[in-house]
Structure formats: structure tokens, C-alpha cells
Amino acid sequence: MEHTPGPWKLEYDNDANGSYSEWYNLLGSNDYCIAQIGRSKELSDIDRKNAQILKAALDLLKALEEIAHYKGTNGYLTANEAVVFVRIAEHAIAKIKE
């Protein structure tokens, strides 16, 4: 699966032509606009949270791939390995809540 390279970043923008619209641009490492999040007039808390989730998508994908591709010893995780994977997941979730 190919996608726009990371890291992704959010950039606040507004319409300078007087319509007073606000939005976030989700940009890839090459400043390619992946998505615009927002609505007319002003951004809501939901818009901001949606933008954070989209920004964290690459971190979530990486965390899930690490967990899914790990084979463990004889197909099982040790307690220590399970703790590591919980921390990987917690780190990815924290990126959303930044």
C-alpha cells in the first residue's frame, strides 16, 4: 500500500477573501495537501479532533503493523513483549490526543 510520505502535519488556514471560513490542511512531507478538515465560519472542537486523528494515521498504521507482524516465540507473546506492544499502542493513541 502506498500513501503520501510522512510525517504528516496540520496547517491552520482561513479564507482571506472575506468569507471567514476556517480549516486545517493535512499536509504530507512534500507539502502535498492530503485533506482539508473544517467548515464554513469557524472550526469546531470536533473538526480539531478529526484533524488530529487524521494526522496520527501513519503512527497508528505503524503501531498496528508492528503488532500484527510480530510472531513471538512459538507464536505466543511473553508478558514482557505484551507490555511493549501495549506501550506502542498507547504511544500511537497519545499522538491523537496531543
Give the arrangement of secondary structure elements.
Layout: E1 9-14, E2 22-27, E3 33-39, H1 45-55, H2 57-69, H3 79-96
Antiparallel strand pairs: 1-2, 2-3
Structure, described:
The chain is α+β, with helices and mostly antiparallel strands. The chain has 2 domains: 1-48, no CATH class; 56-98, no CATH class. It has 3 helices and 3 strands; from the N terminus they run E-E-E-H-H-H. The protein has helices at 45-55, 57-69, 79-96; strands at 9-14, 22-27, 33-39. A 3-stranded antiparallel β-sheet has the order 1-2-3, covered by helices on one side. Strand 2 and strand 3 (33-39) form a beta hairpin.
Mean pLDDT over the full residue set: 79
Determine the number of helices (DSSP H or I, runs of at least 4 residues): 3
| Order of strands, widest sheet | 1-2-3
Topology order in helix (H) and strand (E) letters: EEEHHH
Q: State the low-pLDDT regions, or none.
A: none
Name the features.
alpha+beta; 3 strands; 2 domains; single chain; 43% helix; 3 helices; 98 residues; elongated; three-stranded antiparallel β-sheet
